[in-house]
Amino acid sequence: MDDRRPAGARVTLDMIGSTSGDQPVAWDERATMLYALGVGAGLDAPAEDLALTTENSEGVALQALPSFLTIVTVGHKPPALEALDPGRFLHAEQRIELLRPLPPRGRGIVRTTVDSVLDKGEGAIVTSVSTLHGEGPGAPLIGRGTMSIFVRGGGGFGGPRGPGRPAAAPVRPADATIVHHSRPEQALLYRLSGDRHPLHSDPAFARARGFDRPILHGLCTYGFACRALVAGAAGGDPARLTQMAGRFRKPVYPGDTLTTHIWLDGGGAVRFETRDGAGDAGIEHGTAAIAS
To answer: Which positions fall inside the Peroxisomal multifunctional enzyme type 2-like N-terminal domain (predicted)?
Structure first.
């Protein structure tokens, strides 16, 4: 049967297992600090975020945010994804897992593999897993990132539909609520960490795709949520946040207030959601794990 889908949307089950192979990666303190600034660290209270934004403050050691893993592992596409049109992509979900804290400077090996594809009818969801190992033979696994993208027009190929919607947020009041204020130029700062898609910077490009103005990167909102989890659930210690996952619900605009509601479920299990200034969910069905 002829495949009537657009050429850049032809998701198939054969994509599963496609891999980038082992790719070397390196990062340094400048990249670590620039990322932290890009997700709002230091904007409201500079002196409170010195461990994320400076490498030479007396008595303060620089730490990387756990969500910086999304930057370290980005850009290593499996060949199967190269055949798809990025203009049809919507970031659907993101998960990170760290087996050890991400150092502010390091080298490693990244491998990205297509793990699953789902047929959602009007579109398809392609999930890729990126692993980060240290450099050298036998080097340990540092962490893994799992990214799910929704490919508009990519459904209808007869693949599995996948599970239904996850459980809703708790009905009880949040145990912690963290409010962050993004800046109008937030997307321009965040894009310097690597994602320079014009949807986040070019007003004409954004309007042509149905947005009033450029939108904030989904992973920038994710980074704000990570900071909130560190503050509201991990006692201010980024090394204690070992897992984080969430589903992107709707775009957030630069300059929005981002409010993260956090529920502590015991045993280090956490649920969260991040809402914009209008009260709409930017990230929903969020979960996290906090080490003791």
So the answer is: 27-153
SS3 state at 220: helix
- What length does the chain have? 292
> Active-site residue numbers?
195, 200
Look over the chain and give the mean of its residue pLDDT values, rounded to a whole number: 94
What pLDDT score was predicted for residue 57? 96
The encoded tokens of residue 58 equal 């007396």
| Interior angle at CA 148, CA 144 and CA 152, nearest 5 | 160
Q: What is the pLDDT, as a whole number, of residue 1? A: 57
**Residue 58: exposure state from Cβ atoms within 10 A (0-12, 13-18, ≥19):** exposed
Extract the runs of DSSP E, i.e. beta strands, from the chain. 23-27, 89-98, 106-119, 123-134, 141-152, 176-181, 241-248, 257-266, 269-275, 281-290
Query: In the structure encoding, which two tokens stand for residue 68, read together?
Result: 């910086």
pLDDT in tens, 114-128: 999 999 998 999 999
Residue 163 banded pLDDT, cuts 50, 70, 90 = confident
